[in-house]
Design a protein that fits this description.
Number of helices: 13
Helix content: 25-40%
Largest sheet: 6 strands, parallel
CATH superfamily of the largest domain: tm_1862 like domain
Strand order of the largest sheet: 2-1-3-4-5-6
Distance between the termini: 43 Å
Shape: globular
Structural class: alpha/beta
CATH class of the largest domain: Alpha Beta
Length: 468
Amino acid sequence: MTDTAAAPARKRLFIRTWGCQMNVYDSARMADVLAPLGYAPAETPEGADMVILNTCHIREKASEKLFSELGRLRAVKRRREQAGGRMVLAVAGCVAQAEGAEITARAPWVDIVLGPQTYHRLPEMVARAARAAGAVIETDFPVEAKFDHLPEAAGGQGITAFLTVQEGCDKFCSFCVVPYTRGAEFSRPAAAVLAEARRLVAQGAREITLLGQNVNAYHGEAPDGATWGLGRLLRALAEIPGLSRLRYTTSHPRDMDEELIGAHRDLPMLMPFLHLPVQSGSDRVLAAMNRGHTAAGYRRLAERLRAARPDLALSSDFIVGHPGETAADFEATLALVREVGFAQAFSFKYSPRPGTPAAGAPHQVPEVEKEARLATLQALLREQQEGFNRSRVGMTMPVLFTGTGRHEGQIVGRSPWLQPVHLRGPASLIGRIAPVRIAAAHPNSLSGLLAAGEAVRHDQREEEPAPA
């Protein structure tokens, strides 16, 4: 009889993710961390031995959504216990970091509360939760970098993949909780980023999006001990065989340096679509927000970027109704939008975040006024987005196909400007980049036809006999 290591018992893990791409990446890494304990994905919370709610504090009513979900899961957890089983319930992410004590007070059935800097310790937390009478809370900012303690990703993310290169923020915008929930800026060493990118490509990724709360503040240690900025990192990533496209998000105007602008000029695989939040077009409001840039400075930066890459399209974030914003300030925002032009944008009413400077600031804008301003801004942004989509009609563009569509025979992909593109075509194109002639524009997507030459080449490939 030979000794063999016992495989861990098979358990089921369900993760619900709210918020940004950083949270999507973090959820995938939490699954990787728990895989050695025997956890495999579950389709629903009802079938899970462990449920993680990965939260985001940026969106309005984030806490209310969390506690509503926790109330529903309480009943699921109770039914599991009545049947003789156990379900570990964890709350992760930025709401956990900011409101850990309130979570355990209002929802004592939660077993684990962990911040975004501590999920590499999840196996230890699960073991402690099995022994503890109360909740395990891990919301400190650890001395060690979590990336040094994470296993390699267990499986690929697919044709498009996220890769976190930077976390935290040192900007302290008046409305934002990120410096308090994600901590100070930290950049991963370039060698670690390149190694993970190579693994993603080996697992099938054709497009990688670099992530960071303030990604263009990246200042990672280079293989030779020097420091690389994001522009230099992008150049190194562009040399990886098999990688076809690069993107990055989210950026700050203050950190858009000449090296990074040069990367947009020199790297065809760096897609011509940049998310560059401005938040307001009023210098007075920008100063109150502690943004550190002016509206004129943003306009000049947009001009420099478009001079470097003429086909570049911009996306942005806007907040209306920041404390003290006047009607004239809001008109300045509309003027900036009309002058710069955006292919896409995200816009929100200001909502106070506990512990941030703006939460207690005087001259809070009435809710009815915020709603009216937001509706006006969104109508303008929607008009610009639809106009940008219409401008693509008649173009032949390279589309990276990522999957099948909702209708039989339909495949979908991404344009260079991140628009969904759908058309009728063979599933064998998934994972490839092929030229598509855009036939129609829709509010949030494009549709088209395979370019004639591509259709002929594809038909010929299908007729070729399989190699012996």
